[in-house]
Amino acid sequence: MDIIAPIITPFRSGKVDVETFINHAKNIMKKGVDALFVAGTTGLGPALSLEERKALLEAASSVTRRVIMQVGFLNLYDVLALVKYAEKFDIEAVASVPPYYFPGLSQRQVAKYFRELCAATSLPVYLYNYPAAVGRNVDAEMAKAIGCLKGVKDTNPDLAHTLAYKRLMPEIKAYKGSDSLVMAFFAVGLDGVIVASANYIPDVLVKIRDAVLRRDVEKAKRLQFLINEILEVATPLGYNSSVYELVRIFQGYDPGEPRPPIYPLESEEREKLAKAVSRIKEALNKL
């Protein structure tokens, strides 16, 4: 069961800070992260240019071959260009959200998009299913009909929805993308999680996985509840922005900042988050 970090993209004055990205990747992998999911939602992928994504792919590949590169754009030619570029590196897979913004696309057109990706590369192609963000759900039946997908990151709160991918396509990798239910995802036998908390508490996720494997339900539950308390504080402040501050709090270094329209937390918000999390941090350290 893999712990995969949808790694943040550090910015300085609006520009990608590749050195900080590499240092952050090395740190979280040393502390238990198994693979990197690059340019996803937590990594602000939709806000990145093609050249910026290429730079992040190269940087991630210098740290580990276990990279899943999110290649989705609204422009298919940019998608294909990034897919071709990814073939220069010995990475694990490419992933893509389905085409978004345009609600009038038929299921046939969405399926054709993924088949074109599969035809364009020898790398495994994963579906990144995130209905709340893209306004379109590619469920297990549709994913199976596409016929060439090798994995899925399913970001929605419905566990049964994700299990359906494994039921209909037992050969694929199935990952869940929700911090609030990590314990359950390990317990039901998914291939792992791709969760933002891997950026700031990777060691805690390792403890949850180990507790589940030992059938120590009580410890896994205590750890999960503490993560959920962090989410209750961070989410109203803007979770994407809060992740950067949580890295500072838990990992003790400056991970840069997000880029607008994902604005950094203001000073009062940072203080509120730090104060609320201090007790949780102490409790986590005791477990």
From TrEMBL:
<protein>
    <submittedName>
        <fullName>Dihydrodipicolinate synthase/N-acetylneuraminate lyase</fullName>
        <ecNumber>4.1.2.-</ecNumber>
    </submittedName>
</protein>
<keyword id="KW-0119">Carbohydrate metabolism</keyword>
<feature type="active site" description="Proton donor/acceptor">
    <location>
        <position position="128"/>
    </location>
</feature>
<dbReference type="GO" id="GO:0008675">
    <property type="term" value="F:2-dehydro-3-deoxy-phosphogluconate aldolase activity"/>
</dbReference>
<dbReference type="Pfam" id="PF00701">
    <property type="entry name" value="DHDPS"/>
</dbReference>
<comment type="pathway">
    <text>Carbohydrate acid metabolism; 2-dehydro-3-deoxy-D-gluconate degradation; D-glyceraldehyde 3-phosphate and pyruvate from 2-dehydro-3-deoxy-D-gluconate: step 2/2.</text>
</comment>
<dbReference type="InterPro" id="IPR002220">
    <property type="entry name" value="DapA-like"/>
</dbReference>
<feature type="binding site">
    <location>
        <position position="194"/>
    </location>
    <ligand>
        <name>pyruvate</name>
    </ligand>
</feature>
<keyword id="KW-0456">Lyase</keyword>
<dbReference type="InterPro" id="IPR013785">
    <property type="entry name" value="Aldolase_TIM"/>
</dbReference>
<feature type="active site" description="Schiff-base intermediate with substrate">
    <location>
        <position position="153"/>
    </location>
</feature>
<dbReference type="GO" id="GO:0008840">
    <property type="term" value="F:4-hydroxy-tetrahydrodipicolinate synthase activity"/>
</dbReference>
<comment type="subunit">
    <text>Homotetramer; dimer of dimers.</text>
</comment>
<dbReference type="InterPro" id="IPR053415">
    <property type="entry name" value="ED_pathway_aldolase"/>
</dbReference>
<comment type="similarity">
    <text>Belongs to the DapA family. KDPG aldolase subfamily.</text>
</comment>
<keyword id="KW-0704">Schiff base</keyword>
<feature type="binding site">
    <location>
        <position position="42"/>
    </location>
    <ligand>
        <name>pyruvate</name>
    </ligand>
</feature>
